[in-house]
Prior knowledge:
The complex is a heterodimer of chains A (375) and B (317). Chain A is mostly helical and 375 residues long. Chain A has 16 helices and four strands.
Amino acid sequence: MVNVxxxxxxxxxxxxxxxxxxxxxxxxxxxxxxxxxVNKLAIVFYSLESLSALDExxxxxxxxxxxxxxxxxxxxxxxxxxxxxxxVGSLNLVIxxxxxxxxxxxxxxxxxxxxxxxxxxxxxxxVAPLRKPIIKFIKCCQLKSNGAFVSVLNYQSSEPSPVDHxxxxxxxxxVSILYLLGDRSISDFQxxxxxxxxxxxIMAQRCDVGGFGEFGEPHAGYTSCxxxxxxxxxxxxxLPNTYKEETIFWLLSRQxxxxxxxxxxxGKNENYDALDHGGxxxxxxxxxxxxxxxxxxxSLQCLTPEWTQFTRTDLARSFLQSxxxxxxxxxxxxxxxxxxxxxxxxxxxxGLRLTEGKFNGELCIPLALxxxxxx
Amino acid sequence: MTDCYDEFxxxxxxxxxxxxIVTGLKDELCQIMYSEEYKQLMGLMRAFLxxxxxxxxxMRLTARVIAVAPAFYTAWNYRFNIxxxxxxxxxxxxxxxxxxxxxxxxxxxxxxSYRQALVENLGQDLTLRGDLPIMDMMLDDDTKNYHVWSYRxxxxxxxxxxxxxxxxVDKLIDRDVYNNSAWNHRMFxxxxxxxxxxxxxxxxxYTKNKIxxxxxxxxxxxxxxxxxxxxxxxxxxxxxxxxxxxxFIDALDLNATAxxxxxxxEIESSxxxxxxxxxxxxxxxxxxxxxxxxxxxxxxxxxxxxxxNYKITTLEA
Lengths: 375, 317
């Protein structure tokens, strides 16, 4: 029913197109990108990370931009004289007297620095002066009420922003930054954030059928954030075994199938397409979507070293390569219909590299980088 | 001075010295070809944020900036502070404005945390009724929007008002019986209203009817199993569920070991079979459980074949 090709990805021509697609995003951007100006570092991160995962010599080629990247680091001194530091998404957010530090953009910037630094020593020397202020910023992002993290503080103080969301994404980002800055053991983390409260919050996001999500509806993206954070914290063994098994089964069940009984949904379930065979969905009864290949497979690799035996990674790869990869302009789209975009391109490359054993899933960086920087 | 909710007019800012945005740097990545309007707006916005002016014209500026760059988190935060300072007795108008932004940016999640901040901090006199039209409209348009469902659950808990929820999910399940978010909301409702035994029995009947409509539906099966796990955990109740599940695989003989997909009959639901397999495994009917897993691997759910085979090995251990 479905042609399963074990292509040698990346194929030369496809890779060239991909590289061009990514490099285009680092160049001059059209006026339609104005809305993304405030999160410009996200664009830089998705592009550099992808290029680096494609074995492009990012470090050499883009090293001259390192000082521009570092200009996005800014500090805020609060009323008690504490200096908080972090990155902003765009230089336009560096405004006198305004705290616009962003947790997500801080992670994006640090990973970009990994791709640009030539050696472990260079990275260490670059982040050494930033370490303490960033850690103070992260500490301020944790909510006292439930242990979760927000991503920005009030623009006039070091309190969490009253209008920001708190969720598992920002919990993961906080943990990941601390890990990149050197925290390894639980006592390292404990010195900087309230790990007990964070664990309580993460555990409270568990869902009855397995997985993690808000108010009981599991979501593969949140699940990947929760499990990656637990892995970086060294706390995966806090999950009961039955819950791990349920979550593994929930994740395996997100691989969409055009065969067997699943095909009975054809023509009935408006979110089912048998041709999505081998892809992954983020929630029950949704279409397969490029990014969930990574979110689901990464969640699985956090839970069991045997994940490649339990799941058809070959089918997931052909879903990406034959169905959501755009052969004309390069890049990957969400599904077989949309135009390719940077986010789905980055996640597709991450998913493919993960299945090749060349990606550090919990840090969401190529294995070559985590090896190089002893992470 | 003109009002917070008037149209944005550049002339009101003639006396303000803008803080121009940064352009044309050496060795810059992702250089955006900003429009003149954007440069002007951001120049003003940066100046206002810096001076923290809490006035109607500052509020009008935030509306304009958010329309152009809805992801600008500091602009939302700034607007919130202005509302607290000068417009907290005009929440109706603020929600009207927010509804419009919401309809224009359905995938943005900032709108929902902004809404939550207004309700939590300023909305002492509000009720869930005020939130219903925009939530209903958004879910009508995108029935599985995760942010809206999350906000809805938060709001229902905040106002402690569950009166609209059951009829609402009824409607959505009637429209699409595969809507997992709607089934999930139904379970959220049940867990929060402490239903009596009769209500649970009616729920079971309702769900069985929906499963009979389309037996290959993970959402309704999860809901049915969830009802038993939560409200009827005593094992004595499981017998009727086993019988119900058996009805969808009745052509299949689980006492026989299958050796090829070709020899197996058609069944109506792999979820029914998986449920039976797990129940048999729990009850110690290991051979039947193994046969069921074997059938799933061979024919009914081959994509997860290696997992089903692994389940068989755990029964043999």
